[in-house]
Structure formats: structure tokens, C-alpha cells
Amino acid sequence: MGQGIICATLPCLQQIAMGKSEMDTQDILKIAHLARLGVDEGEVDAYAENLTKILDFVEQLESVDTEGVVPLAHPLEASQRLRPDEVTETNQREQLQANAPQVEAGLFLVPKVIE
Amino acid sequence: MYRKTIAELGAGLRAGEFSSEELTRALLDRVKRLDGQLNAMVTITEDQAMTAATAADKQLQSDTATLMTGIPFVHKDIFCTKGVKTSCGSKMLDNFISPYDATVTENLAAAGAVMLGKTNMDEFAMGSSNETSFYGPVKNPWDIECVPGGSSGGSAAAVAASYAPAATGTDTGGSIRQPAALCGITGLKPTYGRVSRYGMIAFASSLDQAGPMTRTAEDAAIMLSAMAGFDKRDSTSIDRPVDDYIVGLNRSLDGLTIGLPKEYFGEGLDAGVASIIDASIETYKKLGASVKEISLPNTALAVPAYYVVAPAECSSNLSRFDGVRFGYRCDDPKDLDDLYTRSRGEGFGPEVKRRIMVGAYALSAGYYDAYYLKAQQVRHLIRDDFLKAFEDVDVIMGPTSPSTAFRQGEKADDPITMYLSDIYTIAANLAGLPGMSIPAGFADGLPVGLQLIGNYFDEARMLNVAHQYQQVTDWHRQLPSTFQ
Fold first, then answer.
1. CA separation (Å) from B139 to B51, B118, B242, B406, B461?
2. pTM (2 d.p.)
3. CB B70 within 8 A of CB B28
4. A93 Cα to chain B: minimum distance (Å)
5. Interchain CB distance below 8 Å, B365 and A11
6. Chain A CA closest to residue B311
7. What 3-state class would DSSP assign to B216?
8. Of B104, B94, B112, the residue nearest B155 (C-alpha)
9. What percent of the residues of chain B are helix, what percent strand, and what percent coil, each to the nearest 5?
10. Element containing residue B55 per DSSP (H, E)
């Protein structure tokens, strides 16, 4: 976002330059990969342009003084309720798997993962 | 019959003037006849509707009848409905038959309401014009060259064209109020946590809230009574009794203080819209209300904060669509990564992909503090503005949308211009406050909505304030000439 953002201990995405919101082809491909999102080559420039606009637009947040302001996670500051750890659902595997693209013997099928 | 309100139809049903079967049949015929022009429906559930109507006629004879019993409604295609396609306006879920009911679906069914079908919407509720739907754009019944607003555009168009007296909507940044304004109907977004989100396909979980879309405030009160309530299946549902929304509708507005945020009447507001909002405020003064100028100083930050929070939460929520367990799967995936990438790439449309990418970027390592955390801090400031304002006023008013319905394609190329059409509605979502839009007049032949923002859980007062206005105006009774 701004020049002053520090990566702390987390590794940065090397391909995404810090402190700039200008997105290029490489940035889009990197983000699309992170999100496992197929993007056609012909669309990459348009995404780069639009994402740049959006990030430029949200950049105005940077100038706000939020020193000491607690982030608002829930509008009513409610916290998660606890519940007893009890079984409440019955097995509905067949019904739930009726929507699956490919199943066999009660299992979801995907392309071979281990050679 | 199709011009009547829920209250009027309910009275007719209970007096035995007509049956729910007759009413349902008549409205189904109307929907089928008109929807070729508007594209407001994704699915018409004719058989289920007739079965539900028969059951409602029985319920009307029993002591379990409610004010919604036998009343037909259309249901936004974001709510899971058991055994019925629930698409969320996306190719990703075009083949998804929900195995369960959303709590809202369940509550309306238990009240005896009759679902006629599922309404078209922006894909995954991401849009302000209904142009991002996989099923094509919805047309505005007031001018079919114009958009109906979004994302609950199908619901708004359906009520405006009298398909049914009621529709469900959801509102993450204005998706009930803005289409209600653009289509000339009444729409209410409740306090965050008032209506269960269980079974409502998630977009941005800390902002999403469901509510009624109707012609009148009285009908919104009736329908909200059936929808609202604590639900242990929604971890953010608030455990608090539902107020009686009907008993106070006729309360006088003497002594009511209306706050007018100066930031809602500045640059960017269409002059025609502004003069109608001014006139509606004059009407409120005649009803006994007093007016006070207030300031919500962080208003300009609402849209940018929203476009960090909402995409971040969307990128997380939509990671469940992976082509493995349900939804769209690409042909011939060569490996697992290819399966994920192509299923998501082919199953999502451009606006959804854009928001997932913005969210993935904002949440990625090294950027979380700069974007998401910062936006959540700004969100706190925005909420504090409202809390301060509500120390002095009972309800806040202003325009729902800066302009009337715009033409299809007009804003489709520039996301920022489109995002700014929600400039007055987004803050209520960030703060979790209830908001409403009611018909207030017309500018160049297109409807204008007056927005009301209430304090937390003050839906009953807001409905009262809206209802009193509708007792002395008839904007909510106007029907589009080609769909009368």
C-alpha cells in the first residue's frame, strides 16, 4: 500500500512490488495462481488495469490516522458462542454427494494426486 | 389481485374472498407471461408453489395461520431451497440442487408463505446493476433500457412488476436498498445478526444480511416478522427476542428527530434526486418531525473500506468452490491443480474473479495489516460516527442512491464508477445498522428512494417512520405503465 509497510517476519510475494499499486501481467498471474483462478491470457491486461484502479482507490485509507483504533471484527462486538460438542447431524452422504461432479463408492473423485 | 399488498391479500384470504390456490395460480400465470421481458426469474417453481398454496389454504383454517399464510413471494436465488436449483446467479452453481433449506426459507415456509420461484441476481451478489448474472441482465420495469440495481435486482423488478407482493433480498453493501430505490419499492436491511445467514450463500460474512422487499412498509413489517429471529446455526445471529413490528406502525411522529448527514447531500448527488429528498423531508416536518443537520465525517472512507473488507471475505468464502464436491467442474482436468484452476476460472464471471483477486492480494502475506486490518480500523471509526449521531437523533435520512436507474452498460466498464453507486448505503453495512429505502417520488420518470438508517435493533421505529410517510404519500402505490 504505502512506502512504510514492513513485511515483518512473513515472507513477501517477491513478484509483487511493495509500495505500488500498479499491477502488471506478472502480478495478475501470481495473484490468480494464489487464488487458483484460471485467467485467459487475453484478459490479463484488463484485470491489471482494473485491479490497479481498485487498489488506487482504496489507497486513500492509508492517510487515515488509526493509531490505537481497535479493528471492528463484529459490528455489535459479539463473540463466538460456545456449544456442547454433540452430534446434531445425521449421515446424509448420498444426498450430499448427489451434487458432486464425480463420486465412486462414497468417495469424491479427483485426478490422480500421487504417481 | 396482483396489485394488492400483503396486508390486503391476507385480509382477502382470511375472509375467504379467494383462496391461496387461486391467488398463486393467477400470479404464476402473470410471471410466466411477463418474465420474457424482464428476466427477473432464474427458476419458476410452479409445482412446489401449487402444493404450498394447497397447504396454506388448510393452514388458513387452523390456528397456526400467520399474516404471511397463503401469500406468494419470490425468493432471491442466494437462499438454499431444498430440491430446487440454487444458482446464486453463477455458472459455478448452475447445476446445484440444494440438499437443504436456508433458515429464511424454512421460516417463510413455516409461516405459510408460498414461493413462486427464485429471482435473478448479480453473480454471488457482487454487483449494483444485475449485469453480472450468468443468466443475463434483469431489466427495470420502469424503463427496460435501464438496470434495476443490484444485487437483488430480480427481486426488486419482480415486486415492481407485480409478480408478487413480496420478495426476499440480501444486502452486503446496499443490495436490498439500492435496487428497491431504483425500482420504486420498499426494502429493508435489518441489523446485522437479526436475520439468520444460515443457508444464505456467503459473500462477505461480516456484512451480509437478509431482508424483505415489498411495496409498503406495513408489508415489510409483516414479512420481516416471519424472517427474523435467533438461529443457533448462524454463529453471528443475535439471541434477542424479535420486536413486534406491526403494533407501533401507527405511532405519531411528533417529537421524532431526523438527522440529515451533510456528507450525504454534497457533490455527486444528482440534482433531481436531491430535490425529491428535500421534498420528502418537508413532508416529515408536516408529520411532526424535527430535523437536525449532523455529520458523519468518515463517510468518504466507507466505499474504500468496503472494497477491502468485502473482497477479502469473498476470496475466503469462495475458496469452497473447487470443482470437487459440488458445483461446476471443468472438462478433462489433467491434475488436481488444473482441476481447481480451470473449474474456478471457467465457473466464475469477471466481476467475481476481480473481487477474489483483490481479496487474495489484500490478505496475502505482508499486506494483511496494510489492507484488511486498516480497513477494519476505519470501519470502527465509521461506526463511532453513527453512535455519536444517534445520541442526538432517532433516525438518519438521505438519498438511497446518488442517481436514478442508469442505462445498461453505462457503468459496466469501470468498476469504481459502479462501486460509487452504493456510496450512501455501504456505511450501514460496515456499522451493522438497519437501513431502509422507501419510494419518495420520480425524477425524469424514474423512481427515487429515500433512505432511512436506524439505530441497532430499531427496525420497529424505522418501519413506523416509513409507514407514516406512506399514509400521506402514494409514491409506493405507483406502478410502471407497461407492467400495471
1. 30, 16, 35, 11, 33
2. 0.95
3. no
4. 11
5. yes
6. A54
7. coil
8. B104
9. 40, 15, 45
10. helix B46-60
**CA B180 – CA B167 distance, rounded (Å):** 11
| CA of B235 vs chain A CAs: smallest distance (Å) | 6
- Alpha carbons B57 and B63: distance in angstroms, whole number: 12
HSE at residue A2, side-chain half, CA atoms within 13 A, is 13
Between the alpha carbon of residue B212 and those of residues A88, B227, B427, the distances in Å are 30, 8, 20
Helices (H), B186-270: 217-227
Over 70: is that where the pLDDT of B28 sits? Answer: yes
- Cα dist from B156 to A110, A115, B34, B169, whole Å: 41, 53, 15, 8
Strands B435-443 and B395-399: unpaired
| A7 vs B contacts (CB less than 8 Å) | 365-366
Which positions in chain A touch B323 (Cβ < 8 Å)?
101
Burial class of residue A33, CB neighbours in 10 A (0-12, 13-18, 19+)? middle
B-facing residues of A in 90-109 (CB < 8 A) are: 92, 95-102, 108
Three-state SS at B305: helix
Which tens digits make up the pLDDT trace of B135-148? Answer: 999 999 999 999 99
For residue B2, pLDDT over 50 is answered with yes
Quote the minimal CA–CA distance from A26 to chain B in Å: 13
Spell out which residues of chain A touch residue B370, defining contact as CB-CB under 8 Å: 1-2, 5, 62
Q: Facing residues of B441 across strands? A: B448
User: Taking CB atoms and an 8 Å cutoff, what residues of chain B touch A97?
Assistant: 325
The grid coordinates of residue A57 equal 482507490
From chain A residues 20-79, the ones with a CB under 8 A of any chain B CB are 28, 31-40, 43, 47, 50-51, 53-55, 57-62, 64, 66, 69-76, 78
Q: Does residue A7 register a pLDDT over 70? A: no
A70 touches B228 (CB < 8 A): no
Which chain B residue is nearest to residue A74, measuring alpha carbons?
B206
Q: Could you give the residue numbers annotated as active site of B?
A: 76, 151, 175
Kindly tell me if the per-residue pLDDT of A103 is higher than 50. Answer: yes
Q: Cα–Cα distance between B327 and B97 in angstroms, integer?
A: 9
Q: What single-letter DSSP state applies at residue B138?
A: P
CA B173 to chain centre: 9
